[in-house]
Amino acid sequence: MFKRTEEQPQQRALLTGQRLRSYAFALLTRRDYSKAELIEKLNRYAQNPEEVKQLVEELSEQNYQSDQRVAELTLASQIRKGKGPKRIKQALKTKQIENDLIADEIHNIDWVEQAYQLKVKKFGEEVEKDPKLKAKQMRFLQYRGFDLDVIMKAIQRRSD
């Protein structure tokens, strides 16, 4: 509808000091950001990248921003969505968060049970004999990020 022409350059006031801090708090009140995400978001509007890094470190020290919290929320969200460990690690990598932050939580989850519940929800409880349908179940669970040994246990499992 409206076209930007050469005579109308994009004007954007660059933030510094208290205005940058206020913007950071405004972002963090809406949702949790990882350090890398917050730095990237603030750098779009900041005048000085060093000031952004210093601000984000300060917010992290005061626990307004926490990579640990973001990692835990991401883990819980991905599990609710029926994602396996590979997809969860990929989501953390996208947010530029270390897997080490939730390594213990990932290892304590019963992935066979998670995969089985997902399989039951999508395909039912019956253990499939037909190779094509079994392969379809395997592909589905693989896409969701489960390891092959977990998938095999889940699709062979019977409801007792």
From TrEMBL:
In which broad location class does this protein mainly occur, judging by the first location in its UniProt entry? Answer: cytoplasm
Which is one Pfam family of this protein?
Answer: RecX_HTH2
Q: Does the keyword Metal-binding apply?
A: no
**Record domain RecX third three-helical: where:** 112-155
Where found in the cell? Cytoplasm
Q: Which GO terms describe its biological process?
A: regulation of DNA repair
- Report the InterPro entries cross-referenced here: RecX_HTH_2nd, RecX_HTH_3rd, Regulatory_RecX, WH-like_DNA-bd_sf
User: What range(s) does the RecX second three-helical domain occupy?
Assistant: 66-104
Q: List GO terms (cellular component aspect).
A: cytoplasm
Family, as annotated: Belongs to the RecX family.
Name of this chain's protein: Regulatory protein RecX
| Organism per entry | Acinetobacter pittii (strain PHEA-2)
